[in-house]
Amino acid sequence: MTSPYPFAAIFGILIVALTIASGLIWIERRLLALWQDRYGPNRVGPFGLLQVLADTIKLLAKEDWIPPFADKPVFIIAPAIIMITVLMSFAVIPIAPGIIISDLNIALLFFLAMSSLGVYSIVLAGWSSDNKYSLLGGVRAAAQMLSYEVFMGLSLMGVVLLSGSFDLVDIVHAQRKIWFIIPQFLGFVLFLIAGLAETRRLPFDLPEAESELVAGFHSEYSGMKFGMFFVGEYLGVTLISAMITILFFGGWMGPVLPPIVWFLLKMFFFIGVFILMRASLPRPRFDQLMAWAWKLMLPLALANLLVTGAVVLAFFH
Amino acid sequence: MNVIAFYIAAAIAVLTTVLVITRKNAVQALLYLAVSLISVAVIFYDLGAPFMAALEVIIYAGSIIVLFIFVVMMLNLGKRATEAESKLLHARMWIGPIILAGILIAELAYLLAQGNTRVGAAHVIPPRDVGLALYRPYLLGVEISSMLLMGALVGAYHLGWHKQRKPETQDANREHATSPDAGRGPVRTGSGRTVGAP
Questions:
Q1: Does ipTM top 0.90?
Q2: Which residues of chain B make contact with A295, given a CB cutoff of 8 A?
Q3: What is the per-residue pLDDT across A49-100, written as a single tens digit (0 to 9) for each?
Q4: Which residues of chain B from 81 to 140 reach within 8 Å of chain A, CB to CB?
């Protein structure tokens, strides 16, 4: 069921994803301002909409400085890795019937593989900068993302058991009767938390905790290299929101409105949830973060898998 | 099976594996190893084993190598480590590996000469078949490896766990009191900076 016009699909999804990701910078700042009782960027263009454009021009015009003590090739490749891995994941996302770049039969595993490769970007950025704060950020990122990846995969296995496939299109079709949010509520909560940790959004932004690590792994980055980390983070938020929509909320399915509108509505709802989390939750200590992952989330994910497996075996076999 | 894709991936795998051996900087060597593992994943996919390909990337490239890099980052290897490494890589070091690799190449040439050139699975193996194979004929192997992993986990826990002996400040001070050149342990390959100095 791959799109009949592959190049149109590739460029369409690429442009839309990048536009949404950079637009999110403005949306996030406005929403945060709303929730914190202030205005946010409202000077450039109508409602401050052109703020993103102004920021992009600023980033492009800035001096792109590579510190002389940095490991140059690794320093340059690190921001590219995050963009590549996240954009590659968008290739397997079914947005609406027919709007998909590659209908891979292991799409879910492909998504997990790409998100596990994304760790390299942060770790290498931290290591190649040869700066104490960057290195600490990189070390934190490696530990955090590896730990949360473990139960991110496990939390999705319930969905795989219920739909009997790793193919995202099949998973959406399997939700015709009931969205997986109801039988897999625990899986959804676990995936949401793991997704927050994988994208390093605020409750879990310890790799760049500005109150303790300057800017963490990207302290030494400037200009568009920093911009790539910045956009990469918002692309990650978009990707995780799209994955939640597909895996737990029936993807493009919904009454009256066309499928693509339903998909975007659901996706933007979860992007809003991500921003609300940032506005409302404090940052945990690092040992709390790790203990939370291994002592609470992992057993819960395993229990969810066990119970789902037993139910599927008993009633649907 | 796409032959061109196979040869490109295979060439990248061989090249990066050679680079892994010859790099003197540990992190760069590990990065080449990651690329090598990813190209092996491409070969798996090309041979009709998409499930294996995904697992190769998730487990080897995405987790194990990241853990290696994590450890290397913690070791603070600097110029000295690179120098120690370059001393290891002299001409005589290569004799043993070359003999072993030569035997393998001779074996391969013998097999190719016999006409065993049929390569690759003709059909794609879905994840379902992998699961069925693992949990039916090879169930014992899965159980044994799970026991092995459990043993490793208990061992790691035992090594990591220690009684609260003294207040933490004493441990931290001991680290500061020893100069980096005091030569405790086998070879200390730090950056030469005194610990705690800016």
A1: no
A2: none
A3: 888 888 888 888 888 888 888 778 888 888 888 888 898 888 888 887 877 7
A4: 126-127
Residue in A295, A121, A79, A123 with CA at minimum distance from that of residue B71: A123
Helix axes A107-128, B65-75, angle to 10 degrees: 10
Q: How would residue B150 be classed by pLDDT, with cut points 50, 70 and 90?
A: very high
The encoded tokens of residue A135 equal 């290195």
Instruction: Please give the backbone phi and psi of residue B160, each rounded to the nearest 5 degrees, phi first.
Output: -80, -25
Which residue of A117, A146, A149 is in closest CB contact with B57? A117
pLDDT at A48 exceeding the cut of 60: yes
**A5-39 core/surface letters (b: 16 or more CB in 10 A; e: else):** eeeebeeebeeebbebbbebbbbbbbbbbeeeeee
Determine whether the interchain pair B51/A142 forms a contact, defined as Cβ–Cβ distance below 8 Å.
Answer: no
Residues facing residue B112 across a β-bridge = none
* Cβ–Cβ gap A123/B58 under 8 Å: no
> pLDDT per residue over B57-111, tens digit each?
888 888 888 888 888 877 766 677 777 777 776 777 778 878 888 888 888 888 7
Using CA coordinates, name the residue in chain A closest to B68: A142
CA dihedral B47, B50, B53, B59 (to 10 degrees): -160
